Each structure stands twice: as structure tokens, then as C-alpha cells.
From TrEMBL:
The keyword Coiled coil does not apply. Belongs to the NAD(P)-dependent epimerase/dehydratase family. Dihydroflavonol-4-reductase subfamily. Its EC number is 1.2.1.44. Residues 15-246 form the NAD-dependent epimerase/dehydratase domain. This is cinnamoyl-CoA reductase. Pathway: Aromatic compound metabolism; phenylpropanoid biosynthesis. PANTHER family: NAD DEPENDENT EPIMERASE/DEHYDRATASE, OS09G0127300 PROTEIN. InterPro entries: Epimerase_deHydtase, NAD(P)-bd_dom_sf, NAD(P)_dehydrat-like. It comes from the Eukaryota.
């Protein structure tokens, strides 16, 4: 069924989701439609068949409007957020190429925040990242990482982590504009997000797992990451939007795994794939993760799916989409 072109006027529950066709945003749009919201979803090209999955969502015909908008085009964003009570700003590049990352992430966030303030939006939920929280080598290993922690910009720059740099600066800009313009802001800081895909294309955090199943990664890196399930991340976005007591930042992560644990879990669950067994770093000691807390989201009623289930759901989805061959 085609998406409607204009939302019913005067609806008090109209919200905008930027980058609606993305991995996380698609689940968020689905959830919002299920909850009875009218959704204005921004995409760069509404005609692109890669957005057909949005038009196919239950309720889309009645309650989803796809708006053409680019993060670097204020006017397109201003018209997308017009009439909205809330804005979920999820759109961002996900790359360590500074030329592609920084401008849309940072200036794009400023544009979204300004557009929301100009349109009289009640609350913005900005999808930041755990990458804006944990990248700090000076932090004592015993510290429990929580929402008070911020990534060190110099360290991100020195190590070429332009994605974490961009997300950190973008989040700072969001807070700055919110303060200046008196706009209500809540920030979600998800870890690496896994789980089933609604969209037809394979996003960056899914490639993080896919490469271990196709044979393209012959080794695994000596690195540690925290993970979250995409359905939990969508639920967390909605919870911080709807809860009157929600404020500040929310670290959204279930568990921490070394890549060695990731490949071991994948090999146990799906022994048919050529999952690497060797670490690319045979010199340094195995990296250890940081301690973190997701208590703030649990206090809002979010229940986290175990990481092993995240891995399982990701692979099953890739098989169902025909991205990964189902081998005996
Ligand atoms: N996935 C993760 O592991 C993870 C973890 C923590 C935080 N996050 C954050 O969560 C958000 C969504 O991530 P995701 O994994 O769902 O990413 P995704 O699937 O790659 O989706 C990103 C979306 O951003 C849009 N976008 C990129 N540049 C744009 C621009 N200049 N103007 C308008 N739209 C633009 C893309 O639109 P097009 O389709 O037109 O390209 C796409 O729909 C991002 O802010 C990301 O930083 C993700």
C-alpha cells in the first residue's frame, strides 16, 4: 500500500524520524506505527525501492509520510518536522572517513535541532552512540562507564576514529542548541546494534558480523565491543520519548564481548560457515572490556536481549534475506 502524502491535520501524536529507512530507524518507525503515531519519515529519495519496506509496514498506508530531506538542507528538514510533536534524529553517516562523516553528522544535527526549535517541537530524541561515551584512554579501568562519561576528542582524532569523533561533536552540538533554544532533548547512546534487518540493504553494524560468516575475514581483531538488540534500541527510543521523567543521556547496551567470543559464539550457533579461529594480533595480551551500566534504561522498563540472541537473530535474518546462503 502506498504511503500517504499528507498527515491528518491536528493529530497530537505526529512525530518525525530522520533517516527513516535505516536499520534502527526502520524498527523505530514500525514500533511508532504500532503505537498509533503518525510518522513523517525523512529519506533522501522517497522513490528509491530501498525504502519499499517502510511502505509495506503495517499501518504505513494510513499513518506514514515519507518526506524527502537531506541533513545538509535546512529547508527540507524544516518542512519534515513541521506539525510534529517530537523528532527522532537517527540519520547519520556511519564511517571513519572524515570527509563523509563530519559535516552531515555535525552540521546535520545542528540543522535538525534548529528546525525542531523553529517548528515548536516538544521533544527531540537524538541517536548518539556509545562511541561518544567510552573512547577515553585516561579513564581508570575500574570506572563503571555510564552516562557521565564522554569520549576524548583528541584521542578519537589521533586514532582515526572519525565516526566516534563525529558522533561526540554532534551530540555536544545537540546539547548546545537544546540549551540555547530551550528545546527538550533526550539522547540515546547505543552500543553496536545487531538483530534482524527490515531494510533490504546491509548496514555497517551488520557487516561487522557478516564478514565473519562469508570467509572475507580470515582472522578476528583483538578488540572488545558492547552490543544491543535493535528491537531493544527502538523500544528504548520510544520509552525516553514517552516518559515524562526521561532526561539526559541513556547508555543502551546489553553485554560486552571480545571478538574472540563473538566468533566462538557464531561458530557454535552456525558451524556451517567459515568463521575465523585466529586472532590477527598474536603479540599483545587479549584486550579486556570496560565495565558499564545500563541501569537508567532498565529503570524505564527496558529489558535487554542477551548478546548471543542478537548474534543468532542477525544471522537468521541474513539467511532469510538471501544475503547469506543457508548451508546444510
Ligand atoms: N548500528 C549501530 O551499531 C549503531 C550504534 C550506535 C549508534 N548508532 C547510530 O544510530 C543511527 C542509525 O544507525 P543505523 O545503524 O540504523 O544506520 P543506517 O542503517 O546506515 O541508517 C542511517 C540513515 O542515515 C541516513 N543518512 C545518512 N546521511 C544522510 C544525509 N546526509 N542526509 C539524510 N540522511 C542521511 C541514511 O539515509 P540513506 O538511506 O539516504 O543513505 C540512512 O537512512 C546513527 O545515528 C548511528 O550513528 C548506530
Amino acid at each position: 500500500m502506498p504511503a500517504i502524502t499528507t498527515p491528518p491535520s491536528g493529530h497530537c501524536k505526529t512525530v518525525c524520524v530522520t533517516g527513516a529507512g535505516g536499520f534502527i530507524a526502520s524498527w523505530l518507525v514500525k514500533l511508532l506505527l504500532e503505537k498509533g503515531y503518525i510518522v513523517k519519515g525523512t529519506v533522501r529519495n522517497p522513490e528509491d525501492p530501498k525504502n519499499d519496506h517502510l511502505r509495506a509496514l503495517e499501518g504505513a498506508g494510513k499513518s506514514l509520510v515519507l518526506c524527502k530531506a537531506d541533513l545538509l538542507d535546512y529547508d527540507s528538514l524544516r518542512s519534515a518536522v513541521d506539525g510534529c510533536e517530537g523528532v527522532f534524529h537517527t540519520a547519520s553517516p556511519l564511517t571513519d572517513d572524515p570527509n563523509k562523516m563530519l559535516e552531515p553528522a555535525i552540521n546535520g544535527t545542528r540543522n535538525v535541532m534548529d528546525a525542531a526549535a523553529d517548528a515548536g517541537v516538544r521533544r527531540v530524541v537524538f541517536t548518539s552512540s556509545v562511541g561518544a561515551i567510552y573512547m577515553n584512554p585516561k579513564r581508570c579501568p575500574d570506572v563503571v562507564v555510564d552516562e557521565t562519561c564522554w569520549s576524548d576528542l583528541d584521542y578519537c582524532k589521533e586514532t582515526g576514529n572519525w565516526y566516534c569523533y563525529g558522533k561526540t561533536v554532534a551530540e555536544r552540538v545537540a546539547w548546545e542548541v537544546a540549551r540555547e533554544r530551550g528545546l527538550e532533548l533526550v539522547v540515546m547512546n547505543p552500543a553496536v546494534v545487531l538483530g534482524p534487518l527490515l531494510q533490504p540493504t546491509v548496514n555497517a553494524s551488520t557487516i561487522h558480523i557478516l564478514k565473519y560468516l562469508t570467509g572475507s575475514a580470515k582472522t578476528y581483531t583483538n578488540a572488545v565491543q558492547a552490543y544491543a538488540h535493535v528491537k531493544d534500541v527502538a523500544a528504548a527510543h520510544l520509552a525516553v520519548y514517552e516518559s515524562e521523567r526521561a532526561s539526559g543521556r541513556y547508555l543502551c547496551a546489553e553485554g560486552m564481548l571480545h571478538r574472540g567470543d563473538v566468533v566462538q559464539a557464531l561458530a557454535e550457533l552456525f558451524p556451517q560457515y567459515p568463521v575465523p579461529t585466529k586472532c590477527s594480533d598474536e603479540v599483545n595480551p587479549r584486550k579486556t572490556g570496560y565495565k558499564f551500566t545500563n541501569q537508567r534504561l532498565r529503570d524505564l522498563g527496558i529489558q535487554f536481549t542477551p548478546v548471543k540472541q542478537c548474534l543468532y537473530d542477525t544471522v537468521k535474518s541474513l539467511q532469510e534475506k538471501g544475503v547469506l546462503p543457508v548451508m546444510p
